[in-house]
Amino acid sequence: MEDLGGQPGVRDHRVVAALGAVERHRLIEAAFTPVGELRPATSWRAVRGEHDPASLLSAVYSMDQVVVQLDGLPAVAAQRGIVHRGRPSAQSSGAGLLAVTLQDLRLEDGHRFVEVGACTGILCAAAALITRRQVTGVEIDPGVAREAAVRTAQAGIGVRMVARDGLRGLPDGPWDRVAGSFAVPAIPQAWLLRLAVGGVLTCTISTGAPGWHATAVIERSPDGTLGGRLRADTWGHVLARGVPWLPVPERPTVAARVRSSVLVPPDFRVRGFWVVLAHLLPGVRRHWPTDPDPDSTVVLVGEDGSRAHIAPDGSRAEVWGPRDLWAEVEQVHTRWSAAGSPTEFDLHFRDERQVVDGGTGLTWQLPGRDGGRSVC
What we know:
Elements lengths: L12 H9 L2 H4 L2 E5 L8 E6 L4 H8 L5 E5 L2 E2 L9 E2 L2 E5 L2 H11 L7 E4 L5 H10 L3 E5 L2 H13 L4 E5 L11 E6 L8 H4 L2 E11 L8 E7 L5 E7 L24 E3 L11 H10 L3 E3 L11 E5 L4 E4 L6 E4 L4 H14 L5 E7 L2 E5 L5 E3 L8 E2 L1
Parallel strand pairs: 7-8, 7-10, 8-9, 10-11
Antiparallel strand pairs: 1-2, 2-5, 3-4, 3-6, 11-12, 12-13, 13-19, 14-18, 15-16, 16-17, 17-18, 19-20, 20-21, 21-22
Helix pairs in contact: 1-5, 8-9
């Protein structure tokens, strides 16, 4: 495995040791590896340990996610030697994200642990080693769940796999620790209902805009109330199976409206700003070029067909569509700056509302059961 302890945000030696003790190649028999430089990848090759052990070991012990199923086709059943095209439908998170997830949970001996979206069971296996008891993994795909159950058992690790849709509810409980291993727009009530007093829950929050995600860490206090934090993060889980990223509309053929830009586009690593933007301008995303370059034009698109191209030095803004997207971005940046440019936010639970508070003038509500959103 690459130097896990040297990855951003990874600092707990117990977590590093537990993940290092999990023999990932025993839990993953085959995987799809990307072909070419395009990201997200659309072309893949299947590698199997029995035929190409070096390639499989390189894949499963890297910091990247490990794709084990493509549009429902398991890597173990895929034809070798040809290029497969499609979208991952089952994947194990990269080691860095697994480590940060385990750190946020602060696992101890005896904790009752459940993972939603367990896939190959690697996070569960590490959690079982830390808690020294059987843990539970919930996986929507019955075939993936069966494979993980067999392989963790063969490795002698106490993991119980349950095949079900974790968004509809968790088995048993209450749980001391809950890990959501796919991104959601808000914390599902089904997970919160099963969180024990003193329990901790963590998951990725995403509006569907690639790269603009945040990590939620929720705790239930001794009096039963919920509270937590939302953190703009380097690492983040992918969206739930079948949920697409926000679309990228075609570039308009009409002439753009051109003006001088006031705001120099913040670097993509200024994650606090981009997380705020994702939530205050829902339906907007950045369109990343095939070959990213620091000097590339920043392209933002909206679901309504609005579009903005911004020079990297902020000297020129071209906008199309019914909205001036860059003017809206500038307004959000003003609000974010006035609030102190936060990268972490308080998360409050009021009845069934989940309200994010980043300081004066920077508050919003995560989508409710009806999918609606309000910006305060």
